[in-house]
Automatic annotation (TrEMBL):
SUPFAM superfamilies: Ricin B-like lectins
Domain Ricin B lectin: 4-76
Superkingdom assignment: Eukaryota
Native source species: Orbilia ellipsospora
Pfam families: RicinB_lectin_2 (PF14200)
Protein name, per record: Ricin B lectin domain-containing protein
InterPro entries named in the record: Ricin_B-like_lectins, Ricin_B_lectin
Amino acid sequence: MSLKTGTYKIVSAESGEVLTLPNTEVDNSPLTCCKSNGGNNQKWTLRQVDKLWNLRNYVNGSHPSTVALRTTSETPIIGSSVEFLWVIQPSEQDKSRYRISPAEPGAYTNITMMEGSEGKGASIQLFDPFTGPAKNQDWYFEQVED
């Protein structure tokens, strides 16, 4: 499937959990990966900007971004009022999955689902690209109704 502008659930290929903005009332709140609950805080609107993508949370319009706009490994992903652009490309492991990377020149990191606590959600960070069978940097985009 090729991506197009629309509203999606972004699902971890590793866990099947969904990219979530748990606190929609606070700017710079960390994103997590949680079980799908059908909530609007788990919906993301994608909009293509040239060959890049803007993502926006369905509830409050927050953009997945990085702390202080850093794009180095182990940087947390937060929901921010500041628009941030991403490169979204098919995974080399499986073309039905995607990898999400900052559009910054020289940023060779991917959005990665890190280990998390049961019920609390896994943290989401930038991390250096993995090669091989690891799926925690791969994401499915499942289109949902607005």
